[in-house]
Amino acid sequence: xxDHDHKLVKSEGIKSVLTLPILFQDTIIGMLRxxxxxxxxxxxxxxxxxxxxxEQVGIAISNSRMFSEMENQVNFMKEVQELSNLVSSSxxxxxxxxxxxxxxxxxxxxxxxxxxxxxxxxxQLELVASHGLxxxxxxxxxxxxxxxxEAALSGDPVSIYDVSHDTRIIYKKNxxxxxxxxxxxxxxxxxxxxxxxxxxxxxxxxxFTSSEINFAVTAAEVGxxxxxxxxxxxQITLLFNQIEENERFLANILDCIRPQLLVVDKDxxxxxxxxxxxEVMDCSENDLLGRHYDALWKDxxxxxxxxxxNKVLNTGKSATFTHKMFQNDExxxxxxxxxxxxxxxxxxxxxxxxxxDITAKKQLEEEQLERVKLQGVVELAGTVAHxxxxxxxxxxxTAQLLEEDLEDQALIDDVKTIVxxxxxxxxxxxxxxxxxxxxxxxxxxxAKIVEIK
Length: 453
Known about the structure:
Elements: H1 2-12, E1 16-24, E2 27-36, H2 44-88, H3 93-108, E3 112-118, E4 125-131, H4 135-138, H5 147-153, E5 158-160, H6 172-178, E6 182-190, E7 193-202, H7 210-254, E8 260-265, E9 270-273, H8 275-281, H9 285-288, H10 308-315, E10 319-327, E11 330-342, E12 348-357, H11 359-405, H12 409-433, E13 438-442, E14 448-452
Antiparallel strand pairs: 1-2, 3-4, 3-7, 5-6, 6-7, 8-9, 8-12, 10-11, 11-12, 13-14
């Protein structure tokens, strides 16, 4: 190699060389070389001047690097904000994953990107999204035991400049065939939990700066929160679909209208509504989602303390509340049943509310109550009529016999009056034994009497 260097120097016509360090704050950041085509002995003044020049060059280079670093940080901050807006605008997991793996390598000027998420049951990493990488490379095998992946799963980012000679890489041959030179592996976090690993791969030797690493870590955290939110939404959607399936099954059996259904979070904001509720409220799904639960019932006839959602959030137990509403001058009865969804921390995370129209049931109960009342009145009237008839018939018979024995016309007229009134009482008792209904009407003062039908 020295002979080769000498040949190059000779071919270039170089006779003398002055090599000086480039310093910045007493730290060597580079090297400055002065080359001549004639043999020359550099004087002390020339060397001092060159040293001063090297220091100025060091300052200029450091300032340029600092400005470039600050510019990169600003650009990365803008990119993180834009990425955050993109992934937050959707709850579709596939869209979120594709957005992350496409944007990150573009921002860092790299070849591709992959995301692997931990599966809770097997505790293994599953490839869920990739960009810029071949199918053959992605199917090379499990990566859980690679040291760079293990470090990322522990919460630490790992930057590898030369993957072909780094012991933290297992599949060196596959990376060489894929043309990968450098790698950045960062954890995907949701809160304090590591839920996966994001890897950015470069097809040129790339030294990842601290700004680039911080950018990738921040972007992965933004993605982690969005991924967890999307998974939570997916779980709730699956639960909602199961409930809908059960409702449809019951609807076919009972031939009845499906109840209204909604799901609220701990802050009582609607995060899920079914079609029936949208039709009853005459609002679209977008209009209802995000609204406060109490806003749906602000004009309703019930106390806030009776709200079943409040009871579930306070006690963690299911609660039911029945209330009436006035619609188009008619009274409707509704039964609201609230059930808790318990999170991993044992606290209520969501509340499922099922709202049923029980107006027909209430009307049936009222009709049954009226029938019971009527039956009681009929039985009471029959008993009273029976008790009256016994002395009535005796008194009527006695009066008729007395009428036949009397000779005084005035007394006879009085007895006839008695007989006539007794017969009217008999007609009344007959009506009491055959009554089919009654109607309450006002009498004297606050008193009311019953009119027999």
